[in-house]
Design goal:
The chain has 83 residues and is mainly α. The chain has one domain. It is 71% helix and 0% strand. It contains three helices and no strands. It has helices at 6-36, 43-66, 75-78. Helix 1 (6-36) runs antiparallel to helix 2. The radius of gyration is 19 Å and the shape is elongated.
Length: 83
């Protein structure tokens, strides 16, 4: 995927970070829900939970790897027009 201008990249980031933050909020809600339940969570629930956390980490890291050459991350890229 390539971006022809900054507006396309910004809209892509808006969408990705909106989905990512919604998923993280769902983890917090899931944790809070399990704290308020009278019945203790079974150990089988922990496997999907840690899989979900691993998915969030992989998605976050993958997003930065995916946009590594698109976004000016270092000062040389930011000041490229002066070189």
């Amino acid at each position: 995927m390539t971006f022809s201008n900054s507006a396309e990249l910004l809209s892509f980031h808006w969408f990705v970070y909106s989905v990512y933050s919604t998923l993280i909020i769902s983890v917090i809600a899931w944790f809070g829900y399990n704290l308020t339940r009278k019945e203790k969570a079974k150990s089988i629930v922990r496997i999907p939970f840690y899989t979900y956390i691993g998915f969030l980490v992989a998605m976050g890291v993958g997003h930065h790897i995916f946009t590594y050459n698109t976004i000016p991350w270092v000062s040389q890229d930011i000041t490229r027009h002066e070189i």
